[in-house]
Every structure is written in structure tokens, then in C-alpha cells.
Amino acid sequence: MSLHPLRGLTLEQLQRRTSVKWRAYPPDVLPAFVAEMDAHPVPAVVEAVSRAMRDGDTGYPAGSSYAEQFGAFSEQRWGWRWDPARAVPIIDVVTGLSLAIEAVTDRGDTVVLSSPVYGPFFMVIQRTGRTLVDTPLTTDGRLDLAALEAAFAAGTRDGRRAAYLLCNPHNPTSVVHTAEELAALADLADRYGVRVVSDEIHAPLVAEGFTPYLDVLGTEQALTVTSASKAFNLAGLKAALVVAGTHALPALADISHMVGALPSHLGVIAHTAALRDGGDWLDGVQEDLAENRLLLRELLNRELPQVGWGGGVGTYLAWLDCRDLGLGDDPGEHFLTAGRVALARGPDFGPTGAGFARLNLATTPELLTEAVTRIRSCLDQR
Ligand SMILES: Cc1ncc(COP(=O)(O)O)c(C=O)c1O
């Protein structure tokens, strides 16, 4: 039987949830901002977590089941084989990114990113006391290799260390970097001795065409931070992994000594069960998302032809170019106050996010239609 995790839940059922998506705004606001899915839970996760609760199995995590299961998943979905001994468990991806940056650079060193990009990337660089250098994506949303080379050259001058925070696939544009682009990045990083830290939290959502950065030649010095949380909707059950390239094990040792950054035991149980037994559920999510993208395209063509959308398939997020609507740098503000629909704000993704808003399309067709209808209606209220 095929599963359709993103079908059938009503607004009333969803409003019983108490996570940030359903509590950040009053009930008359339709939330489409944060990256949570309006999905039925993964049956295998419900079973595994319920069993742990019944057994009182609520202590500290042990063992390497999460890394092993992620390894099996990577091999099956992407043909990427790696030794689970090259991974350490960590509480969440953002913590993993911070620790990875601290392991491969020193205070004041350059860390490069490519905006528009997931807002906490900026915070990670600032909080770790590194120097942020932005090499924005090209106008068609690809990595700007010439700008990256210039930034890598400048950042490693005088023998300093430098790193690049890669978002693979890219949030918010949903662009899936190609194997060729990643190979070109690896070549530049190798040439300048820049350490790449790849955030791959959205990767399991991609139906085809995803390339794990560590599966590209010349990435032995890189680190990947990943999790099953985004694809299986498990952000509330915290767990993630830092995986080291074959020459990056010393950085991994630094990270694994971090007291207090361990995942939750229930998180590990949940993520491991999802990766082991949630394959049909994930296939169903991928099918539902593909249909939702077609629906969104139709809705935009009909209701909002002035809004641009690249249609990326790397996440369940749609990066909407609202610059022709004449709503200024933060169109999401008008959508919220006049339309009662909450999108993620473009400027939160860096200066290149001005005039954009990010819509979460991991919901039912009914609620996706409602979100676009609300955006459309509020355009007349200016
Ligand atoms: C690119 C990216 N990295 C990290 C995260 C957050 O991960 P975590 O909750 O594991 O810190 C998100 C959440 O949406 C994300 O989009």
C-alpha cells in the first residue's frame, strides 16, 4: 500500500500540535514559515518511541546504531559507502556546524557562505568569533565559483585557516548542487586548503540527483553534518551526525569530546527507526511533494503571475521572488499582517534575500491552496 503522509490532515487536527509552527502566531494565521511538515508521523517511529517509553528506556544514548543506519540509508539511496566509525552523534545540525567550524578554524579566521542561505549560518559564524565572508549565489541560484576562489585566496593569505559552509541541498532556494559543481568546489577547497563543512540535513528528501559532498573526489578534509530530522519530520526528537572525510578524523576527535552536545536517546531511537523502516513513508512524502510543486506552479501561474519561483526540488521550501509586487524588502510582513499567512522572511537569509519570502509546501493541497489564496487576496489591500 502506498502511503501519503502529506494528505488528509485537517487544519483543526494540525492546530492541536504545540510545536513552534502552531504556536508562534494566533490561530487565525496560517503558518507556512518554519521547516516542519504537516505530515502524519512515521509509523515505525511511533512504534519505536512508544516501546521505549513503555520499557522506561529513557536514559542516555549508547552505541553507533544511528551512524550505522545512516550509512545503510546513504548506500541504498545514493550509492555512498562510508565507515560509521567516521561519524559522531551530536544533538542537532546547528550545534554540529558550530563545533565543526571551531574544529577546523581559529577565532578571527574567515568562514565563507553563499547567501541567500539558512539564517543560523550567519549566527554560527558570529557566535564562534569567525569573520564572515558572503559570496552570494549567482542570479540563477548556482555556486559562484569565481567569487569563491577569490574569497578562498583572501581567507588563506598569511597562512590563516579558512572554511566554507556549504548548504547541500541549498536552503532556501532548494537548488541541488550538481556533482560537477561540487567537484569544482572540492578542487578549489583543496587548492587553497579551505575546509568545507557541508550541511546535508535536507538531502534525504531529494528523490534523485543528490550528491553527498564526501562522495566527491578530493573531499578527504571535509566534514558533513546531517540528520534524519528534516526528511522524517523529527525536529522535536533531537539527534544528528557529524561525518568526517577520510583525512578529517582529528577534527572529529575534537568534536566528540564536547560534553553536553550529545543527542537525546529517544532522538537516536526515533531517527534510527525512521532510517531503517521508514523508506515507504519517505517515498510517499517525495511523491506528495512532487504533486505539491506542480500544484504550486499552477497556483502561481493563475493567481500570482508576478511572483517568480525557480521550482527547486532540494527541500520542501519554495523561495518566492516577490520583488515585482512592490512590497519592499520584506514582503512577508505584508502577507502576515494583511493576509494572515506566515512565510519565512527573505531578509533573514542575508542581504540577497531582500524582496523574497520562503513558503513551506510540505502540507496538504488544501492548505497550500489556502496559503496562495491569502497571499493573492492581501495584494488588493494596499
Ligand atoms: C539547512 C538547515 N540546517 C539546519 C537546520 C536545523 O537543524 P537542527 O534543528 O538539527 O539544528 C535546518 C532547519 O530547517 C536547515 O534548513
Automatic annotation (TrEMBL):
In the record, what terms sit under GO molecular function? cysteine-S-conjugate beta-lyase activity
Identify the keywords attached in UniProt to this record, alphabetized: Lyase, Pyridoxal phosphate
Q: What's its EC?
A: 4.4.1.13
- Give cofactor(s), names only: pyridoxal 5'-phosphate
Its top-level enzyme class, in one word, is: lyase
The protein's superkingdom reads Bacteria
Q: Which Pfam families match?
A: Aminotran_1_2 (PF00155)
Q: Which residues form the Aminotransferase class I/classII large domain?
A: 41-375
Q: Which CDD domains match?
A: AAT_like (cd00609)
Answer yes or no on keyword Hydrolase.
no
Question: InterPro entries this protein is in?
Answer: Aminotransferase_I/II_large, Class-II_PLP-Dep_Aminotrans, PyrdxlP-dep_Trfase, PyrdxlP-dep_Trfase_major, PyrdxlP-dep_Trfase_small
Task: Please give the PANTHER family that the UniProt record associates with this protein.
Answer: CYSTATHIONINE BETA-LYASE-RELATED, PROTEIN MALY
- Of which family is this protein a member? Belongs to the class-II pyridoxal-phosphate-dependent aminotransferase family. MalY/PatB cystathionine beta-lyase subfamily.
Q: Name it.
A: cysteine-S-conjugate beta-lyase
Q: Which organism is it from?
A: Branchiibius cervicis
